[in-house]
Amino acid sequence: FLSARGQCQLATTDNPQDARAWQVLTASALALKDYATATTALTQAQSLAGTEDETRLLGAELNYAQKSFESALSASDSVRQNSQRKLMVRAKSLDALERKEEAIEAYRSVLSYFPTDDTARVALAERLLEQQPDEALLVLERGTGQSADLLAQRGYTEWAKGEGQKAIVTLEKSLELAARNPKTLSPERRVRALTALSMAYYGAGEFGEGNLVLQQLGANYNLLGHLLEFVTPFLLPLLVLLVLHLFGESRIEPLSTLEFDEGQRPWTVASVYRILLVGLLGGLVVSMVYGSALYSNLLALWTPLQRNEALPIFYLTFAILVFALTW
């Protein structure tokens, strides 16, 4: 792209009326994320060939790259020919605008014209995963290619659906392909694939394999920072409870004489903490047994789709134990 940009800059200098050279210069600058050059070149292309589909499409792509999604959508709709680039920038713009249903239909449109487009296939599967996981997996299985990106999303979907063993095979294959050619799997998707693979191994009780994958993940990702980000919302209520406890202790008047209590106190702070801890551990154990029995996954409580079933089990067990221990 650097060479193409340089050649186009020479061509536009020799012949400033060459619209095609300005278009290629815009595309090259876009690929290099040189948006200032792309904007200047596009302005020249629009003055010479503003009605051509290529110029309008380049405008849509530049607007999308600069996060002007409404303008990108409008520009893509003005392109007459349903090219792969036009349909993709339109779908991505709708997606970025969080118009989910329209984005899903736009990605379907891309695949109807270009069924080998793995990027559109992966994006469609991601949008379908939460509400229609079976269809999301079917979309990925229909892919004719076996790219690392496609396999990573397919493995993640299988893991999210509770198909742990299938997910392990698929994710291992994806990471093997990415090891041969790292450019085929983005860093973000690689982290996601390694996370899902480690969770799949741990959920299946294969702790040794899970530890090995976790070590690979640690080499590519700040695990401690992510862990702190995850546990902070849970630590804050505990911190508030601790502050209240210490404040309450500080308000107790010191005694100048000895007091003797007859019999056991019905309630103490220690008994409250003990009941809450037992309820919490009981809920975790029962939810893990539930996940293991139904999905062969000890970590159902932390698996995207199975969490919707495991969480009610956790809360119900917690409530029953707390009620039974306080009765």
3D architecture notes:
With 327 residues, the chain is mainly alpha-helical. Helix content is 76%, strand content 0%. The protein has helices at residues 2-14, 19-31, 35-49, 53-65, 69-77, 84-96, 100-113, 118-128, 133-141, 148-161, 164-180, 187-203, 207-220, 223-250, 269-295, 307-326. Helix 10 packs parallel to helix 12 (187-203). It is elongated and about 90 Å long.
Largest sheet: none
Fraction of residues in helices? over 70%
- The whole-angstrom Rg is 28 Å
Which structural class is indicated by helix and strand composition? mainly alpha
Shape: elongated
- Residue-averaged pLDDT, rounded? 85
**Would you identify the regions where 5 or more consecutive residues have pLDDT less than 50?**
none
Give the H and E element order: HHHHHHHHHHHHHHHH
Number of helices: 16
The counted number of beta strands is 0
Question: How far apart, in Å, are the first and last alpha carbons?
Answer: 73 Å
Estimate what percentage of residues fall within beta strands: under 5%
Keywords:
single chain, 327 residues, mainly alpha, 0% strand
How would the blueprint of this fold be written?
Layout: H1 2-14, H2 19-31, H3 35-49, H4 53-65, H5 69-77, H6 84-96, H7 100-113, H8 118-128, H9 133-141, H10 148-161, H11 164-180, H12 187-203, H13 207-220, H14 223-250, H15 269-295, H16 307-326
Helix pairs in contact: 1-2, 2-3, 2-4, 3-4, 4-5, 4-6, 5-6, 6-7, 7-8, 8-9, 8-10, 9-10, 10-11, 10-12, 11-12, 12-13, 15-16
